[in-house]
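Posted in: Structural Biology > Protein-Ligand Complexes

Title: Requesting predicted complex, manganese (II) ion in pocket

I'd be grateful if someone could produce the 3D structure tokens for the following input. Sequence and ligand are given below.
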Amino acid sequence: MKILIISDLHERDIQSIVPNKILKSVDFLISAGDYNRYPYPLQSIGIYGNHDSLEEVNDKQTLINCHLKMKRIHSLKFMGVQGVFCGAKRYYKNPSWYHILESDIKIQLEKMPSVDFFITHFRAKEIFDRYHQGSQAFRDYIEQKEPKYYISGHTCADGAIERIGNTVCLNPHPCGKKRYIVLDLRTQDVRIFDINLTKI
Ligand SMILES: [Mn+2]
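-- Reply #1 --
Done. Output follows.
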């Protein structure tokens, strides 16, 4: 089974980033949020980001939303956390963006079981955490529940893959490039496609 992993495409259409042959070769897609052009052209699971519209989040729901709920595709288990934390006060100005409190999330995550894929829009503490503002609650969940894979988005960061204990952490944020990741679950191969945008 092959899975396409992406985040933070914002206004860019997925077809302008990911070639059709890749879109056709994968079984489904994992999104770590912030895509303003829903629906994706194939089955998709994940969480919404702080730029995703409340209409999509609440009404259209073209993404299988695993925000604080365990969802399954085939035998795989998914769970995640949407949005960003309230500390980012500048986001309050835009009513279409929404926020969550880390203290609430911490309590909820402590009750959640382990999953195959833990997906968050905001970052975990010191995992691709360039600005050192990542969530301790996410980090605690990863260290205690040991999901097989951890995927986060939202901010540009160095690197695309690292391991924390038994968890493989993936960073699909395009960071001004065309980045996407293909995970082959049969072989456990991770392919990171990192293509520089042509400057005109
Ligand atoms: Mn974001």
